[in-house]
Amino acid sequence: MVPQLADEMALIVKLRALGAHPDIPAGLTTWEQRRDAVKAVLDPVGEETYAVRNGKRISMAMEYARTYGEVP
Predict the structure, then answer these.
(1) Alpha-carbon span 69 to 15, nearest angstrom
(2) Phi, psi of 67 (to 5 degrees)
(3) How far apart are the first and last CA of the chain?
(4) What CA–CA distance (Å, rounded) separates 4 from 11?
(5) CA dihedral in degrees (69, 9, 54, 1; nearest 10)?
C-alpha cells in the first residue's frame, strides 16, 4: 500500500513535534526509503499518545500502521 503523501507528511510532522527526527535523504526518495526512515525513529515514541479520537487513545504506532498499512 502506497501511503497518501499528506498522511505521510502529517506523521513526520507529529514525530518531529515529539523530538524524533527521521533521517530522510534530500532530493527524490521512494516511499520505501521514507517508510524505513520513519520506522527507524518510531521505537522510542511508538506508544506516545498524540491524540484522542472518539474517546480512543491514538498512538504513534497506530498512526504509522494507518499511514503505511503495516504494523511497525
Answers:
(1) 18
(2) -70, -50
(3) 14
(4) 11
(5) -20
Question: What is the value of pTM for the model shown?
Answer: 0.76
| Residue 34 main-chain phi, psi, to 5 deg | -65, -40
Element (H, E) at 12: helix 5-17
Residue 8 identity (one-letter amino acid): E
Distance CA 42, CA 68 (A): 13
**H or E segment and range at residue 53:** strand 49-53
pLDDT digits (tens, 9 = 90+) for 48-62: 777 788 888 888 888
pLDDT mean over 3-26: 85
CA distance 46 to 60: 5
